[in-house]
Amino acid sequence: MIINTTHFNADHKQIIADLVGSPFSLVQKLKMNGVGSKRMIIDKVSPNMQSMMNLVADINYGNIELRPKGIVIRINKGLSNFAWIIPYYHLVIYKINGSSIHAQGKFVQFRPDKTFKENRKFFDKMIDEKVKYDMLYAMPKEL
Fold first, then answer.
1. How far apart, in whole angstroms, are the C-alpha atoms of residue 59 and residue 103?
2. Which superkingdom does the taxonomy of this entry point to (predicted)?
3. CB of 109 closer than 8 Å to CB of 95
4. Which residues of the chain have a pLDDT value below 70?
5. Which CATH class name applies to 2-136?
6. Measured distance CA(104)–CA(1) in Å, rounded
7. Contact, 64 vs 126, CB < 8 A?
8. DSSP H or E stretch at residue 115
9. In 3-state terms, what secondary structure has residue 70?
10. Is residue 81 a contact partner of residue 74, using CB atoms and an 8 Å limit?
11. What's the pLDDT score for residue 143?
12. Could you tell me the strand order of the sheet in which 2-4 lies?
């Protein structure tokens, strides 16, 4: 689900909390060594997300925030801000020529540049959190 978060709306805050959980507490953030990525350059997006990108030759930026049950990708378009809320059970990550995040029939591909390389530990942490979440709801093996 994509929502416009340019202006504060309590309903949006509740929607995000329902889908991916409330933000981590300060203690949890310190234990996890941070829950947000650095700003990354968006290289490509799916056609159904093209309206969130700058029309001129400006660079599009985005960052990722971890939540207990998913992630929030925040995208800036000029003075507007958008949040793409992705529960872990929808999340698919491809690490080919940068990183591409797919969910809900949409995708965002981040450019493999210096800032992306600085976020390598963050992507590893995000994959670990997804695995932990998947293990909570894994089907039991038959004997």
1. 23
2. Bacteria
3. no
4. 143
5. mainly beta
6. 8
7. yes
8. helix 114-118
9. strand
10. yes
11. 57
12. 2-4, 80-87, 70-77, 61-67, 40-45, 106-110, 99-103, 92-94
**First CA to last CA distance, the chain:** 39
Neighbours of 88 (CB within 10 A): 23
> From CA 106, how far away is CA 125, in angstroms rounded?
22
Beta-bridge mates of residue 82: 4, 75
The string of DSSP codes covering 17-68 is HHHH-SPPPHHHHHHTT-SBPPPEEEEEE-GGGGGGS-SSSPPPEEEEEEET
**pLDDT value of residue 53:** 84
- For residues 105 and 134, what is the distance between their CA atoms, to the nearest angstrom? 20
Element (DSSP H or E) covering residue 12 = helix 10-20
**For residue 126, what are its two tokens?**
């995000």
pLDDT for position 80: 86
